[in-house]
Amino acid sequence: MPTHEPDRRETGPSLERILGLIAPGMLDVVVAPRGTGVPVTDVVLHDPGEEREDDGARAAAGLILLAVGVEAASPEALDVLRAADRAGAAAVVMRPGARGPRAELVEAAGRGRTALLTRRPEQGWTEVLGRLRTALVHSDPAGTTGVAGLRPGDLSGLANTVAALVGGAITIEDPQSRVLAYSRLDHEPDPMRRLTILGQEVPRWRVDELRASGFFRTLWSTEDVVRLPADDRYAERLAIAVRHGSEVLGSIWAAADGRPLAEDAAAALRTAARAAVPHLSHHQTWGLAAARAREGAVHALLRGDVRSAREAGVTADRPYAVVVAEAYDGRGEEAYDGQGTSDGRGAGAPEGRGAGRAGRRVLDVLALQAAAYRPGCVTARSGRRLYVLVPAGDGEAGPARTLLASVRSVPRDVVLAGAGPVAAGPAGLPASREAAELVVRVLRERAARLPAGEVRSAVAAYDEVVPEATVLRLLDRVEPLWGSLAGPVHAMVEHDRVHGSAYGDSVTAYLDASCDTGTAARRLNVHPNTLRYRLRRARELFGVDPADPAVRLLAEIGLRLAARRSDRPGSP
User: Fold this and answer.
1) What's 69-92 look like in SS3?
2) Confidence bin at 97 (pLDDT 50/70/90)
3) In whole angstroms, what is the distance from residue 435 CA to residue 95 CA?
4) Which helix (H) or strand (E) holds 65?
5) How many CB atoms sit inside 10 A of residue 276's CB?
6) Residue 28: how many CB atoms within 10 A of its CB?
């Protein structure tokens, strides 16, 4: 019946545990007559052509059978299910088909012992087989993954746990020396650790050094801890490879973190390397796909779909604040639609408008920092922005300031971060997101008024920018009406657009300086008499007189809207 002899263990991890270790949504449980606590001994391909009554029970007890080529709506599906049930299989997986399982099949499954599962149409059999077997290999009957309390693939949690054991700073890397996770930064990192974290990989020149010295050759060829002595540049390091059989999954590095490493640090690393196997294997096998699915769930939650909370990793009865971090590039705003795309007004990533290499790097660093900052942080990317759902506990701006601290030492990267109000539950997260986005818009407008060389990273909470945020909300509402009107300010803005004049800039600077000609002239880098001439001509040509309260109000509105339009892509 199966294509090879199964493992003869009498017990094994439960079906529930196996399903919990694979990517969410890969398989659907149609009927589980004995529940999902039944033990699983192996995962095999089922070939109906090899079905034999005399040895079916011996061959299939405790197995998950993948019925390749069998559709749940087909006539043969019932025969396959009955045969699997007679053989004592734990579960049988079929392709659902366009119509799904037949009622007769579901009823038969309910009367038997074997669970009936279907695979999602977008999942291939090879992928399903690989992920189920990986989950089986890295499970045990007790349901642990080597470190108590860690969910499968929680590399950041593993790094923090190991750091406590070795008394140092931990970095978990893949075989190409790229950073997968690192422990919390309780002390100022040494220069190499800082470079590695900020770059998300060990600097190439350092990799070349270690390769030339034979360090990597030793690391990959031994199962023990390898020591890299301290020198006049960097603190002592201990490293160990993480192996699954003959395959190297990655490595764990421990660095002295402001104090000597613990005496038993090497022993702790050996234990950590064994405990890391299921987590790195989990990450390698389906962690990236699961991360994409989780990110999609976060976006759905931020749009208001509270049903996505569990898949997003958000606890329903826990308060969260939304932090939005934007890699600033001096351009106008984009639109958030919750899918990493754009509809013209917020934080998405339309074609050609996503974060550049530097922007991606700094957002990746922030995502890593969020994972290490506090258990339960959830992140999702959208264009030039990173959305972080932070469990509340230290006020609105605290999380944003903590996350931003990791990029302060990279002056060429400018990040604007805003924190929304704390939401009591998932239903309040869209409002917190909108408020955080408004904070970023306020910070972006502040940055746009500065010379390029003076723009710095900035962070604020919503309650710190309420007046400016309220103005932005009002302008959003007024903008559609403004375009249908006409008047002195409209005429001046159109003249500037057609002729390249600077009357609007002059009036804006004058109003921003509270009608102080000297201050406004300095900001424009012109002589005060030049500014007075421009203001007089604006009054003569268009009727824009800042001394008139009504005109002054209209100028404030119209010039802000004109500046907003000129910042948008494709604006003339």
Assistant:
1) EEECCCCHHHHHHHHHHHCCCCEE
2) confident
3) 45
4) strand 63-71
5) 28
6) 15
> Which residues, 6 or more positions from 543, have their beta carbon under 8 angstroms from its beta carbon?
488, 491, 551
The closest of 494, 489, 441 to 468, measured between CA atoms, is: 441
Each residue of 454-492: pLDDT tens digit? 888 888 889 899 999 998 889 889 888 988 899 999 999
Euclidean distance between CA atoms 95 and 361, whole angstroms: 40
299-316 confidence digits (pLDDT tens):
999 999 988 888 888 888
Query: Model pTM?
Result: 0.54
Q: Is the CB of residue 40 less than 8 Å from the CB of residue 140?
A: no
% helix / strand / coil in the chain, to the nearest 5? 45, 15, 35
Greater model confidence, 517 or 346? 517
Does position 555 have pLDDT exceeding 50, yes or no?
A: yes
Among left, alpha and beta (phi > 0; psi -120 to 50; other), residue 97 is left
Distance CA 357, CA 359 (A): 5
N-to-C CA span, the chain: 70
Region for residue 265 given its phi and psi (left: phi exceeds 0; alpha: psi -120 to 50; beta: otherwise)? alpha
Rounded CA separation 326/101 (Å): 47
pLDDT at residue number 202? 85
Q: Which of 346, 412, 352, 328 is nearest to 382 (CA)?
A: 346
Number of H helices, E strands in the chain: 21, 15
Report the distance separating Cα 67 and Cα 124, nearest Å. 12
